[in-house]
Design brief:
GO terms for molecular function: hydrolase activity. This protein is of the alpha/beta class. It is built from eight helices and twelve strands. An eight-stranded mixed beta sheet has the order 1-4-6-5-7-8-9-10, sandwiched between helices. Strands 2-3 form a two-stranded antiparallel sheet. A two-stranded antiparallel sheet has the order 11-12. A hairpin with a 2-residue loop joins β11 and β12. The chain is globular.
Length: 329
């Protein structure tokens, strides 16, 4: 199963019927109609902000869920112009008390995510980890917080998971964060920003810490500085163009706190979308900061760490690191 396909419009629990593959005796097999994939039922979900996200006064964008490949798998979707962020929950059959906040990517222009979940959250659940996959606001949509709008959502998500830990059968001290691509940037950003408040508290959940126990960042956007910055993410974070100070403020390798959580990194050397120097730079900064860290650079895998249609074993490599740093018993 493709663990990275975090998809679906899946707000409906019904399934699309499959199209039969009938063909006339004389029709070539290649012309036979392909079955339509089923629309999977959604995971349970809840809103991040009970009374709406903060700073929406000038937001006119309308949230939408689109197919990433028009005419393709109806479960392969992305959320655009997110106005009402949610957390989707994958509960394991045999929970071990650990939880992970999973942050999908999308270049800060969309959130490549499924309301039905995908292979990664299922794999985590198979390890006994309760997984919360989030959607988040996008910085170019006019939010008062500008580029910090997604950071507000990530901080709120960790606090809310911690606040509701008993409800989900998790240990509030065993909450990690993982992120992919631009979601890796956001996962790293929330991991280093627990010491500052980015929004006014809205309820009791906001008395909780937003610090994760550990972070895992996969093929992540890290720096906003030339020559290794991902141009698309920079454009979305700073629609009017960034100053040098703004670039530096969002370059994670330049803003590590002394008590940065242990951080795992994985990237492919042939990634042409977000070059591996992003992870290399952060790894060097983490080592200089004396933060426990581990880095894996795969020879092949591109942007997504997949070779010949199969995932590289980055999650399997992450698991011992997670155990070593207390996420799992």
């Amino acid at each position: 199963m493709d663990r990275r396909r975090l998809l679906t419009l899946g707000a409906a629990a019904a399934f699309f019927p499959q199209v039969a593959c009938a063909q006339t005796p004389t029709a070539p097999a290649s012309l036979a109609p392909k079955p339509v994939p089923a629309l999977k039922p959604p995971l349970e979900s809840f809103k991040l902000w009970p009374n709406g996200a903060p700073g929406a006064e000038n937001v006119t964008a309308k949230e939408d869920w689109i197919l990433r490949n028009p005419g393709g798998d109806p479960n392969d979707t992305a959320a655009t112009h997110v106005t009402d962020p949610i957390l989707m929950v994958r509960r394991p059959k045999n929970p071990n008390g650990a939880a992970v906040l999973m942050i999908p990517g999308g270049g800060y222009v969309r959130v490549a995510v499924s309301r039905a979940g995908g292979g990664t959250d299922q794999w985590l659940a198979d390890q006994g980890i309760t997984t919360f996959t989030m959607t988040y606001r996008l910085p170019a949509d006019g939010w008062a917080a500008g580029p910090q709008a997604p950071l507000q959502d990530a901080q709120r998500a960790i606090r809310l998971i911690r606040h509701r830990a008993a409800e989900f059968g998790i240990d509030p001290n065993h909450i990690g964060v993982i992120g992919f691509s631009a979601g890796g940037h956001l996962a790293g950003w929330v991991s280093e920003s627990f010491g500052r408040e980015t929004y006014a508290a809205v309820d009791e959940a906001d008395t909780q810490s937003s610090k994760p126990l550990m972070a895992a960042l996969f093929y992540p956007v890290m720096t906003m500085m030339a020559p290794y910055a991902h141009g698309g993410s920079v454009k979305q974070l700073f629609p009017n163009g960034p100053t040098d100070a703004q670039r530096k403020a969002l370059s994670l390798e330049q803003n590590l706190p002394v008590d940065m959580p242990p951080t795992f990194l994985a990237h492919a050397g042939d990634d042409r979308v977000v070059v591996a120097e992003n992870s290399l730079m952060l790894y060097q900064a983490l080592r200089a900061n004396k933060t426990p860290t581990e880095l894996h650079i795969f020879e092949k895998g591109g942007h997504g760490l997949r070779t010949d249609g199969k995932d590289e074993p980055f999650m399997e490599l992450w698991l011992p690191f997670a155990k070593r740093h207390g996420l799992l018993g």
